[in-house]
Amino acid sequence: MPLPRPDKFSDKSPDMTHPSTPATVVIYSGGMDSFTVLHRALREGLEVHALSFDYGQRHSRELEVATRVCRRLGVPHQMVDIRAIHGLIDNSALTDASREMPVGDYGRENLADTVVPNRNMILLALAIAKAVNIGAGRVDYGAHGGDHVLYPDCRPEFVEAMNAVSGIANFAPVEIHAPYLRASKAEILADGLAIGLDYADTWTCYRGEALACGRCGSCRERLAAFAANDVTDPLGYLPQPDPAVSQRPDDDATPSRRSPDV
Ligand SMILES: [Zn+2]
After folding, report:
1. Ligand 1 ion: Cβ-proximal residues, 5 Å cutoff
2. Distance 13 CA to ligand 1 centre (A)
């Protein structure tokens, strides 16, 4: 009996063990950093697979933005629902809607509340699994320098250790590519602006309302990055309270006014 002709299988997935174009799995939240990383990977000419996670965030604005951007770019986008593990990681203001969302600049005292237990190790492990599954040699991850103080799983030592593990955990090594590991948010934004990215296609605010709040740590860091680049943020923001009011002495005494490095 003759062997089947190769084109008989043309409707099947290609042999992803050896993809013709190097492929990467981009962990894409819909925020500024992963948006920039996604575009960098595309510009490298890689076959990009975007991966987003629904882990029970308080709102889905970022994920909606991620879906829209991938659809427009024609990038395959997989949204993974990991809410089944919500009960393991709900001790955070980001995943527990009954908790007050802290406001103010990033600082240990207030925004430690926004740490989701072991989040990035979980997400990286799943992204590495997908990479192995499709024969991709890389996972792109948007950790950046400004996260170091508060988030241990964005620090270089964590990413380097995970990268070492990723090299030995499977038959095929997967590299964790974190191009902004030592860059500030402002530097990432400068990089994206230089290649013409439109940051109206991103969502940063920890609150999921129609307009960004401008007050949460994530908004404040974003706004500072735009200010550092002397560019106006294209996102809409809620009207801000009178700056004179927000600078009252008793506000200055709150931990939220401390800089992240104290
Ligand atoms: Zn906000």
Report:
1. 205, 213, 216, 219
2. 41
Residue 3 lies in a domain: no
Q: How far, CA to CA in Å, does 51 sit from each of 38, 77, 240?
A: 10, 6, 34
Evaluate if pTM is beyond 0.85: no
Residue 26 belongs to domain spanning: 19-257
- Give residues with Cβ within 8 angstroms of 247, minimum separation 6: none
**Is residue 7 assigned to a domain?**
no
Which residues have a Cβ under 8 Å from the Cβ of 160 and sit 6 or more positions away? Answer: none
Q: What is the pLDDT of residues 172-200, one digit of tens each?
A: 999 999 999 999 999 999 999 999 999 99
Q: Where are the beta strands (DSSP E) in 63-217?
A: 77-81, 138-140, 175-177
CATH number of the structural domain spanning residue 132: 3.40.50.620
- With 50 as the cut, is the pLDDT of residue 34 above it? yes
Query: 202: CA distance to ligand 1 center in Å?
Result: 13
- Distance (angstroms) between ligand 1 centre and the Cα of 258 equals 18
Q: 71 C-alpha vs ligand 1 centroid, how far in Å? A: 25
